[in-house]
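Hey, can you fold this one?
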Amino acid sequence: MRALLPIAAANVDITDAYAVGRSQVPGRAFVRCNMISSLDGAISLNGRSGTLGGPADRMVFQVLRSLADVILVGAGTMRTEGYGPAVLNEDLRNQRKERGQPAVPPIAVVTRSGNLDWSSPFFTEAEQRPIVVTTTGTNPGARERAGHAAELVLAGEDNVDLEEAIANLYGSGYRSVLLEGGPGLNADVVNAGLLDELCVTLSPRIVAGDGPRILAGPELSVPLELDPVHLLEQDGFYFYRFAVRR
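Sure. Predicted structure:
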């Protein structure tokens, strides 16, 4: 993989490229979002983001997961993308162990309803116990089932309070969060002022249609200002890393 910005280089170490400059926010977790987009702004094709990707994108996806303490995903994206437990290759697992992290990160799923398939591999085959982030107003039966299948984080009454949820994760020792969507959850994180970095893979494809974008919901009252950290390229895929301007 080559670097185009900030300094051109023929070969870069991807782990170093994404690890350098991971500034920690005093008192709360560092939140980085990773998404893929077509040239015309779609984040999925036939409902799946993976169909826009390729080997280089999957490699960056794995590296970003390997650097995180916890992965955060919305329940809708978990269902649509067919999420299973996090799986990393041996090199990335060893790098995590050397940094004092467990071999793979847990995945935290955000759900207001608690309507999840507790018998799915996501729960039954996870190397690290999953985390369910929900509300105190969720059906007590669903909360009880969640408590048997996963670690339970309660944040908010009717809607998940993401500021409280991420504070709870931070209090449990998770210092870096990798947000993987979907667009509604991304927008909630942005609106809560919790996003620190956005990593976007630009796929060399045009798909048309009316698919979702990186953020969903109403237009932001003030556009979120981003500063480029780097731009990498391989096989026609461009990998942007932006820091949120404070």
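The first helix runs from residue 14 to 19. Let me know if you want another pass with a different chain boundary.
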